[in-house]
Design brief:
41% of the residues lie in helices and 28% in strands. Helix 1 packs across helix 2.
Length: 95
């Protein structure tokens, strides 16, 4: 199941007992901080949840799946996520 930003806001509003406008403000601020940090190449570590890292990908050879022709894929940055042991155990029903 995918959770949308609207559903996330509803959950925060109910659990923290904030008005929806304040919940939206807090959520948007948090997401903006995360976004800016990742854009700047920084990592985000949330204890008990996991770590978001920006990785550099080198230029590499690829293939166009429609034509089968070889192409060169440029350098790029990607975001990876490694969950904490606590989250992994919770997902797997351990502990």
């Amino acid at each position: 199941m995918t959770i949308t930003k609207a559903q996330l806001l509803d959950s925060i509003t109910k659990q923290v007992d904030l008005c929806r406008a304040k919940s939206a403000e807090v959520t948007e601020s948090l997401l903006e901080i995360i976004k800016k940090t990742l854009e700047d190449g920084g990592d985000i570590l949330i204890s008990g949840f996991g770590k978001f890292c920006v990785k550099e990908k080198r230029k590499r050879r690829g293939r166009n799946p429609q034509t089968g022709k070889d192409i060169m894929l440029g350098e790029r940055r990607v975001v990876t996520f490694k969950c904490s042991r606590r989250l992994r155990d919770a997902i797997n029903g351990e502990g």
